[in-house]
Every structure is written in C-alpha cells, then in structure tokens.
Design a protein that fits this description.
It is a single chain. It contains 7 helices and 14 strands. A hairpin with a 5-residue loop joins strand 2 and strand 3. By secondary structure, it is α+β, with helices and mostly antiparallel strands. The chain has a domain of 190 residues. The chain is 20% helix and 30% strand. Strands 1, 4, 7, 8, 9, 10, 11 and 14 form an 8-stranded antiparallel β-sheet that branches. The chain has a two-stranded antiparallel sheet with strand order 2-3.
Length: 289
C-alpha cells in the first residue's frame, strides 16, 4: 500500500432528534454543553464510533478486516483484559512503533501512547528509571496523522429531563415495597445540528504507514458513523449524518491551511450549508448513510 500522498481535510454535519448525543458523566449524563450553551460531542466519542465501525467490518470469509487496539469491553472481539494484555498477546515482546502501526488500524490513524510497566515493577509504585534496578517498562509515543475535532451545535441547545421508573426492584427490600433505585432520569435534546472537522496529515502518515487505502476507509466510515450505535439514549434514527465534506488537496503540503478550508464551510441551523469557493480546491460532497 502507498503511504498517504495528499493532504485531506473533512467535515461532518450531524442531526440529532430527541436523543442524547453524548452524555457528560460529571453532570448526571446530561447532554454535553459548553459554557455558552452550545451542544458538544467530544472527539473521544467520535473516534470511539469510528473504531466501532472498523471493528464491525468483515471480509467475504467472515473474518474481521481491521484490527483495532482500543476496544470497548462490550464490543471487544478478543479475550484481552487490558491494553497491555492485548499488546502482549498480539506482538509478544516485539512491540515497536513500526509493529504497532502495522498491527492496528487505529494506532496508525489516531496514534497511541504505549506506556506499560515491566512485569517485575512494583505494584502502584513509580520507580526512578534513572537508578539501576528501576522500572524497565516501555514508553512508545505514536503521533497519528488523523486528527478529529469535537463536534459543536450550530445553535445553543436545550436539554430536557424526564423521570422514569423501573418495573422491578434492583435490590430486595425488607417490606417487599419498591426501593428508591426504581426511580431514574433520562436526558435528551429536542433537536440539534452539529458539525465536526478533521484532517489527515501526509507527513505524519509517513511515520505510521497510514496509506491512501486507509484514508478511503475513513471516508467510507464517516457517512455511517451512527450505524449499529443505537441505545436507550440514542434510539434508532435519532442520530443521522447529513453530509460529509471531503477536501483532497492533491498535494502533500496542501493548497490551503486547514483553518481556511474548515472556515469555508458555513452550516445553517436547519442542516443546510454553503461552501466558499477556494478556486483550486473542490470538495467531494457525500450523503450520509
């Protein structure tokens, strides 16, 4: 595979209808909102969804097409109990920047910090590696070429909360009556248009081996970001990718800065958009899945 040759910028327009796009665990799992009242979907959440879609892809033989390093417990496809366990089982004692990037798609795309203690390190104790006999663990930083911004709503959003009740007790009570844990809360927004931006850097792609084919995989996943992502907080059909805007600069250095490219897109509160003319840079406009 050929290492990525051209700089790429992209943007994704999302519509949320009566859903919780990204709950904030520090705020009772209410939809994330910044200080100005605009809704937010964190970049970590977006990359999680990209990883999940990668993990679902299979070839004609039913085998997984892409290997993913950072897997969530409820979707993992191996028996690894931790990231270190996954690294040890996949690469044994041959973990390097090159082998990690070759093994895992998300590592060569987003990067990763491999910071693991050695087997003989004392538990819960950080030792001074400058002294003889200190921790001989590894620390390998990988800087990935694919950067993804957090998504923000075009207009301030209004969070709604409803109280819910469970049909049964979670715990047995002495008097047989309903316990307090049968009560709960659900949070959502009525509607909102979000947009997030990203870019792919060819110079960093040279370090990780991220290829033109890998970039095409990212482009194919973005329109179906919320496929198989349904939950109580995000019912089927409540989250939708409206449009993916994909700028391929056709050169390694890029014809314009990412800031100028991203600012050329103007998104309206109803999900419509316009793109300023950048003369020599015409974007590909892809419908959501």
């Amino acid at each position: 595979m050929t290492t990525l040759e051209n700089k790429i910028d992209f943007a994704v327009i999302i519509r949320s209808t009566k859903a919780n796009p990204n709950g904030d665990p520090l705020n009772g799992n209410r939809p994330r909102i910044d200080y100005d009242g605009y809704g937010e979907i964190s970049d970590v959440c977006i990359k999680r969804k990209i990883r999940d879609r990668l993990m679902e892809a299979k070839d004609e033989m039913g085998n997984y097409k892409y290997s993913v390093f950072v897997q969530c417990d409820e979707r993992k496809v191996d028996d690894a109990k931790s990231l270190k366990d996954r690294a040890d089982k996949a690469l044994k004692d041959k973990l390097t920047l090159e082998t990690a990037c070759k093994q895992w798609f998300d590592v060569r795309a987003f990067g990763q910090v491999f910071a693991f203690k050695s087997a003989n390190s004392k538990k819960n104790k950080v030792e001074d590696t400058s002294e003889p006999g200190g921790d001989t663990g590894i620390s390998i930083p990988v800087r990935g070429p694919v950067s993804v911004h957090s998504a923000f709503s075009i207009e301030p959003i209004h969070s709604e909360s409803i109280q819910i009740t469970k049909s049964v007790n979670s715990e047995t009570t002495a008097d047989g009556k309903k316990s307090s844990d049968t009560m709960g809360m659900k949070h959502r927004i009525d509607k909102g248009i979000y947009v997030f931006y990203g870019s792919i850097n060819p110079q960093l792609a040279e370090r990780t081996g991220f290829s033109n084919e890998d970039a095409d995989v990212i482009k194919s996943i973005l329109p179906k970001l919320f496929e198989n992502d349904e939950s109580s907080a995000r019912p089927a059909g409540s989250m939708e990718v409206l449009k993916v805007i994909w700028w391929n600069h056709g050169c390694k250095a890029g014809k314009h800065s990412s800031a100028k490219v991203h600012q050329s897109l103007k998104v309206n509160p109803d999900g419509g958009y316009s793109i300023s003319n950048l003369n020599d840079l015409e974007p590909e406009q892809i419908d959501g899945f």
